[in-house]
Amino acid sequence: MAIQNPPVSQTKSFSTVFLIEMWERFGFYGMQVLMVTYMVKKLGFAEADSNLVWGAAAALIYATPAIGGWIGDKFLGTRRTMLTGAVVLMIGYAMLWVPTNNAIFLYLALGVIVLGNGLFKPNAGNLVRKIYEGDEVKIDSAFTIYYMAVNVGSTISMLLTPWIRDYVGEHYGDALGWHTAFGVCSIGLILGLINYFFMRHTLAHIGSTPDETRPPVKNVLGVLVGGLAIIGVSALILQNQTVAQWCVYIAGVVILGIFAYLIRSVEPGERAGLVAALVLTVQTIAFFIFYQQMSTSLNLFAQRNVDLSFDLFGIHLLTWIPEQFQSLNAIWIVILSPILVWLYNTLGRHGKDFSVAAKFALGFVAVAAGFFMYGLGAHSAVDGKISSWYMVWGYGAYSLGEILVSGLGLAMIARYVPARMGGFMMGAYYVAVGVAQYMGSVVANYAAIPDNITDPLQSLPVYTSLFNKLGFVGVGCTVVAVLMLPLMRKLSLDHALADVQPVPPVHNEDY
């Protein structure tokens, strides 16, 4: 009689995905926090151009997961594709470590990062979905904790890489400072891969069908050739903003077409869930237009119009580097996520948890409050610079909204989308996010400051005008989300009823 290995707990399996995701996000956000200012200060890009290049890169980074999810489902396996993506990302960040300020080399490195993220992101999320499949009470909490993993890693890296850039730059030269900071992102992925190697057994029973056998050589070669093509095409798109715009528009149409096709072709019992997923995906697109401001307009606002000194009751506490303000987003999410998990679990045990749609509506309320906070700070600005504490509270409100909308976006896909298309639809969701990221960069350019304006008193009203307008847009999104609640309740009920299937009779030939 064979000896059975003890079953692996959900917590251990989840921890393995949690930790590699944490290190992957360490690398990504450590790079992101510097990228726009790197293009402006080292490559000589205008603010508008740097916003759009990064917007196009972000769109590609979030678009390729549609392909990566398909590869994980059908060709290499979910676990194997996630691991491959982590290795490719490590290589992409290592390329940024190379001390050159050649723009073409930057585009190629970003192309490698685009490919790596496409392979990693949907399959990591799909593994979490598979770990908690069928457990409706735990799935929102699991994805909220999973989202916190993003922000544990990114908190550290967004504080660390600007400091490394300045420290190394001061002692060994400005150019070396930038590239050393990017190199730290690659080291983060190396640590994540080492950790995964020692914990990989906890995921041995989780994955898709291709994970169970060695992949055919033709599948491996196909992914390799396709991956090189994605790198090359991405580099070309980043050099041509007209092409980038058309790619974004086409991607948006394709996503809507995919949803329309699936809604028409799936079984009637699955249709309500897909319609609900479509409604919430459209709301997610709206949210990520706000989100993209963090690395573009809010980042550049901190460079020009924020007092970098943190003072409390007249006592100086610390002074931040402008890019480090982006870490406030991650810090708040780490603080707020456990509180929301406790709240979800407590309400869930009593059958009173809010619906995902209601959480989305509350999220837009918080996002609107956050952007109004930056505008409010302008009223007490000194010499064109607002207090750093307005950034703290603005990011706090905005981050609460992010947890309620973006943090539950993956849970929404896991809840409403049929399991057989989980990886692909995770990827399609990220394509929608990518479209929104580019649109967010276009919006950020309404506050792009010309090179000849250096006076904070001139740039302050430009930025705060944009932030106040975004606050009012957030109010509008709230109203729309609230009006959609009755429809979402009906769709969720229909989806839940469709999931209750009669148990088929057992026949002797089944044994």
UniProtKB/TrEMBL annotation:
It is found in: Cell membrane. It comes from the Bacteria. It is a multi-pass membrane protein. Pfam families: PTR2. CDD domains: MFS_DtpA_like. The keyword Cell membrane applies. One of its GO terms (molecular function) is tripeptide transmembrane transporter activity. GO terms for cellular component: plasma membrane. The chain crosses the membrane at residues 22-40, 52-72, 81-98, 104-120, 141-164, 176-198, 219-237, 243-263, 272-291, 325-344, 356-376, 396-417, 429-449, 469-488. InterPro entries: Dipep/tripep_permease, MFS_dom, MFS_trans_sf, MFS_Transporters, POT_fam. GO terms for biological process: tripeptide transmembrane transport. Residues 1-489 form the Major facilitator superfamily (MFS) profile domain. The keyword Transport applies. Keywords: Cell membrane, Membrane, Peptide transport, Protein transport, Transmembrane, Transmembrane helix, Transport. PANTHER family: PROTON-DEPENDENT OLIGOPEPTIDE FAMILY TRANSPORT PROTEIN (PTHR23517:SF15), RESISTANCE PROTEIN MDTM, PUTATIVE-RELATED-RELATED (PTHR23517). NCBIfam families: yjdL_sub1_fam (TIGR00924). This is Amino acid transporter. It comes from Luteibacter yeojuensis.
